[in-house]
């Protein structure tokens, strides 16, 4: 029987913050996630898309568009979010006794393998997996929550030197770092799996949409486990729209770059120490992460703290200059300083 594990905390828990600290949703500045504050403009959807099951031809089209968009060499498996793919990772090596996870990182990898009764090895770098018994290695690149990046050559080197190990690379935050992406190698390297998230860059996390690039045998395992109609027709239509409109993609990139610069400026002016980042969030050293999170929440500014890195917080992007000023002044007000 699979062990029953307590759910782990995630960003975006605005309702819980409101229940504890008060205020209406409109009064809060929610910077607790790594999701773009800007959403892809949605297309007009035909009314019958809500009444009929998703068409296989549309799924095939979206998979081909995703392959082109992410630079893949094979058509990906479409999933209802990256989280759904993470839940299925243990099935790719059902006989595995242990998995090595480059840590600290997103907690749901460990949860998925612990539920399957698989031992966890926490490692600092992908190369460190060589000293373990792990038949599966998990790497988030760039990493969440510290933004640490592993260079593509280092991943290639490990994958080719350890073909008996399955290497899973989660590129949920790689949309602005194509130089890191291994999507083009997945499927060509039989022991490599690459996951991509649609919702973070496109600002549509509620859509629940992701893509997994892998060789055909592994892709079939995932597809069989997901079953038919795993992704909704509206989600497929929105993905096709996003992947087909490079003008909208370019605009999102520019807006994210600008928001990133505004957020960094606010942190610098508040004398907060940034120790890592991606295009969509900053990891900051603040001494007592939980205390700073709670102090900020008292002023309706929501950030993320971590049990595994108690001296740090993660701060998402401000959407505009006014929010940048609010973040800066609130950080100053609660007295956040570099330790």
As for the CATH topology of the largest domain, it is Aspartate Aminotransferase, domain 2
How many helical stretches?
Answer: 11
The tally of structural domains comes to 2
> What is the CATH level 1 assignment of the largest domain?
Alpha Beta
User: What is the molecular shape?
Assistant: globular
Q: CA-to-CA gap between the ends?
A: 45 Å
Strand order of the largest sheet: 2-8-7-6-5-3-4
Keywords:
single chain; 339 residues; alpha/beta; Aspartate Aminotransferase, domain 1; Aspartate Aminotransferase, domain 2; 4-stranded antiparallel sheet; 36% helix; EC 4.1.1.81
Overview of the structural elements:
This protein is α/β, with parallel strands linked by helices and 339 residues long. It is built from eleven helices and 13 strands. The protein folds into two domains: 14-39 and 248-334, Aspartate Aminotransferase, domain 1, CATH 3.90.1150; 55-245, Aspartate Aminotransferase, domain 2, CATH 3.40.640.10. The strands form three sheets. Strands 2-8-7-6-5-3-4 form a seven-stranded mixed sheet, with helices on both faces. Helix 2 runs parallel beside helix 8 and helix 3 packs parallel to helix 4.
């Amino acid at each position: 029987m699979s062990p029953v594990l307590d759910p782990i905390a995630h960003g975006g828990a605005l309702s819980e913050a409101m229940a504890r600290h008060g205020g209406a949703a409109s009064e809060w500045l929610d910077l607790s996630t790594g999701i773009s504050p800007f959403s892809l403009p949605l297309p007009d959807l035909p009314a019958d898309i809500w009444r009929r099951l998703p068409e296989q031809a549309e799924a095939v089209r979206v998979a081909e568009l995703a392959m082109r968009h992410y630079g893949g060499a094979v058509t990906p498996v479409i999933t209802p979010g990256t989280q759904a793919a993470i839940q299925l990772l243990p099935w790719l090596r059902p006989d595995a006794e242990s998995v090595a996870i480059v840590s600290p990182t997103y907690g749901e990898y460990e949860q998925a393998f612990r539920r399957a009764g698989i031992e966890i090895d926490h490692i600092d770098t992908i190369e460190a997996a060589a000293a373990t018994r792990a038949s599966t290695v998990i790497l988030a690149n760039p990493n969440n929550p510290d933004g640490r990046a592993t260079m593509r050559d280092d991943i290639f080197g490990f994958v080719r030197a350890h073909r008996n190990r399955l290497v899973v690379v989660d590129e949920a935050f790689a949309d602005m770092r194509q130089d890191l992406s291994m999507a083009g190698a997945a499927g060509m390297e039989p022991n490599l799996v690459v996951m991509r998230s649609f919702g973070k860059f496109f600002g549509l996390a509620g859509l629940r949409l992701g893509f997994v690039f892998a060789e055909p045998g592994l892709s079939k395992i995932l597809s069989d486990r997901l079953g038919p109609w795993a992704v909704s027709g509206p989600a497929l239509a929105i993905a096709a729209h996003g992947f087909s409109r490079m003008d909208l993609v370019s605009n999102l990139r520019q807006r994210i770059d600008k928001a990133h610069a505004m957020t960094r400026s606010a942190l610098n002016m508040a004398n907060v120490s940034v120790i890592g980042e991606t295009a969509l969030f900053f990891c900051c050293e603040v001494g007592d992460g939980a205390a700073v999170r709670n102090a900020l929440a008292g002023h309706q500014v929501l950030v993320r703290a971590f049990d595994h890195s108690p001296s740090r917080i993660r701060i998402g992007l401000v959407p505009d200059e006014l929010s940048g000023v609010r973040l800066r002044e609130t950080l100053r007000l609660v007295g956040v300083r570099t330790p």
